[in-house]
Specification:
By secondary structure, this protein is mainly α. The chain is built from nine helices and no strands. Helix 6 packs across helix 8. Keywords: DNA-binding, Sigma factor, Transcription, Transcription regulation.
Length: 188
């Protein structure tokens, strides 16, 4: 059994090596850059070697390798569409994010305010807002009518706004100063 495995592996290597010139020529025709074509062939050989158990001995090795190469080529093209070339760091230098400490403080304030809600309102708003249940599902969980859940959620939202001192939705996220600095950094 081990002898047959060694023989199959030797045949696999021999067939793969014989296919390399054609594989390289195909890669060059796709990419038109010898260096990148060589990289593509290397990636193809590595994938083929890792998946050699899926190769059926006696079938067309060259066709199998060309299929792997072609799929790898298209995968790289798709991947490159999502990547940004930034060799000089110009793109990276324009990126900025607001500081995290504001979000941490806001979250702690929210947790404190949430703890001050009556238990029935806290349960209702957590089921609807945090857990994503529909009003009907939350009503079933709590064993009460849907209208009661809606009322509890509404009262909880109003009480949270009052406890947190929130007047409108623009008060969420970074404050005006942090937003201005972040926007200015993105323009540079």
């Amino acid at each position: 059994m081990a002898e047959e495995h060694t023989k199959n592996e030797t045949n696999f290597k021999r067939e793969m090596l014989a296919a390399l010139p054609n594989l390289r020529a195909f890669a060059i025709s796709l990419i038109r850059s010898r260096d990148r074509a060589d990289d593509l062939v290397q990636d193809t050989i590595m994938k083929a070697w890792a998946k050699q158990e899926s190769y059926q001995p006696g079938t067309n090795m060259r066709a199998w390798l060309v299929t792997i190469l072609r799929n790898e080529f298209y995968s790289q093209i798709r991947k490159s569409g999502r990547e940004v070339q930034d060799t000089d760091g110009a793109y990276t230098s324009r990126l900025s994010v607001p500081p995290e400490q504001h979000g941490s403080v806001d979250l702690q304030d929210f947790k404190t305010a949430l703890a001050k809600l009556p238990e029935d309102q806290r349960e209702a708003i957590l089921l609807i807002g945090a857990s994503g249940f529909a009003y009907e599902e939350a009503a079933e969980i709590c064993g009460c009518p849907v209208g009661t859940i809606k009322s509890r959620v509404s009262r909880a939202r109003l009480r949270l706004q009052e406890l947190l001192g929130i007047q409108d939705e623009n008060e969420f996220g970074p404050d005006a100063q942090v937003a201005a600095v972040t926007a200015a950094a993105a323009i540079r």
